[in-house]
Amino acid sequence: MKEANTSKHTAPRKKRRPLRWLLLLLLLACALAAGGLGLAFRREIAGGGATGRTVAVTVRQGSGVAAIAAELKEAGVIRFPRLFRWYVGRQGAAGRLQYGDFTLEQGASYDALIEALSVYAAAETTRLTFPEGTTAIAMAQKMEQAGLCSAEDFLEEANNGDFSEFAFWQYVPEDAPGRFMKGEGYLFPDTYEFLNGGTVHDYVATFYARFDEMITPDIYAALDGQGMSLHELITLASFVQEEAGNDQDGNVAQVFRNRLAEGSPYPRLESNVSSYIQSDEDNNYLWNWVAPWYGGWDEIPPEIVAAYDTYSCEGLTPGPVSNPGMAAIRAALDPQPSPEAEDAYFFVTDLTGRYYYAHTLAEHQANVRAARAVNAGL
User: Fold this and answer.
1) Alpha helix (H) residue ranges in the chain
2) Cα separation, 359 vs 355, whole angstroms
3) CA 159, CA 154: separation in Å to the nearest integer?
4) In the CATH scheme, what is the homologous superfamily, with its name and number, of domain 54-117?
5) N or C: which terminal CB in the chain sees fewer CB atoms within 10 Å?
């Protein structure tokens, strides 16, 4: 009988040390690369690569920060356009950057570039102010009166041009049954300097760029939290702007939101701002703006009348009825009403500017009589 072999025959252990060293070397290389990139970023921001050489850079009217950064990169002024965009945002300087022709130093510090780009370029410009609540047609007419472009071309570009470079554009419905104008509501009302001889696209982009800047990530987050679309917000804000546009924005917005709420006993806005009323004395979108566009009330397509007459249609109209300012937009998003309007479904005003709020139709009718009595005594 053979003696049992008690020795253990095991495979030789593999040497793992070279693999571990390889991984360590790779990690070290990555760390060095990241450190080198960070150093390059800090050097660029500080202007460490300034060459003393200057180049001419043209910033087109309506350009956003991304387009400006790309132009600077193309001209050799900066190396990292995404870094420049981040820095401008961090400094809160996006709204200061201007358009026109600039002479910039290659490799200048970001602060120096922001300062240079924040000065109006030497060019002939036309300065125009568009009050809150101005309609798209009124804006187009003002542009034509200033000799910048025809009203027809302005509206054609505003409604049918491609402005997908702006974040908000993806939220504007491409098709909305019965909608009058796609661009209505998004041409932000403000004071602008327009470069004489510019293109119609650039002129329109100036308005849209300002709107895009004003609709912040916080607003988008609040909309998501409420299940509300940007288009619904701007449409509601346009009614708030036209019915109030003052310290009553929040109360008026609350009344409309009460009417729009699920299960509301009054699901129609019933606002004279856009209604069946045919009178020059009323601020009526259908009568004052839509009807003249089509050549008269009877020429308005029936689907538009049906969609914008707030006494017959439920809910919001298919689009805004003016271009609201930020106060109205904020009120539509977060009304913060006073107690008298918190649960109200009605409001009426008298000629002194006082607002009367009511929860029931009977209360509203009493308020209407009181407002008329005030008006009669003036």
Assistant:
1) 17-46, 65-74, 81-90, 110-117, 136-145, 151-160, 200-214, 217-226, 230-243, 249-260, 285, 291-294, 302-308, 326-333, 339-342, 361-376
2) 14
3) 9
4) Endolytic murein transglycosylase (3.30.1490.480)
5) N
- Structural tokens at position 72: 């600077």
The single residue listed with the structure tokens 């470069």 is 195
- Which pLDDT value is given to residue 36? 60
Block residue for tokens 């509300």 = 228
How far apart, in whole angstroms, are the C-alpha atoms of residue 324 and residue 240? Answer: 8
Six token digits for residue 223 = 């909309």
The encoded tokens of residue 273 equal 């701002």
Q: Determine the pLDDT at residue 231.
A: 98
Q: State pLDDT tens for residues 153-173.
A: 999 999 999 999 999 999 999
Whether residue 206 contacts residue 62, with contact meaning beta carbons closer than 8 Å, is answered with yes
In angstroms, the CA 44 to CA 170 distance is 33
- The residue type found at 211 is F
pLDDT in tens, 179-232: 999 999 999 999 998 989 899 999 999 999 999 999 999 999 999 999 999 999
Question: Rounded to whole angstroms, how far apart are CA atoms 28 and 25?
Answer: 5
CB 113, CB 58: distance < 8 Å: no
**Residue 314: strand, helix, or coil:** coil
What is d(CA 252, CA 273) in angstroms, rounded to the nearest whole number?
13
CA dist 236 and 179 (Å) reads: 14
What are the sequence ranges of the domains in the chain? Answer: 54-117, 125-214, 226-376
Cβ contact 97:118 at 8 Å: yes
357: left (phi over 0), alpha (psi -120 to 50) or beta: beta
Answer for the pair 188, 176: CB distance below 8 angstroms, yes or no.
Answer: no
Summarised one tens digit per residue, pLDDT across range 323-373 is: 999 999 999 999 999 999 999 999 999 999 999 999 999 999 999 999 999
What is the 3-state composition of the chain as percent helix, strand, coil, each rounded to the nearest 5?
50, 10, 45
Quote the pLDDT of residue 94.
80
pLDDT-derived band at 8 (thresholds 50, 70, 90) equals very low
Q: Which residue has tokens 């932000």?
A: 188
**Residues 189 and 132 sit within 8 Å (Cβ to Cβ):** yes
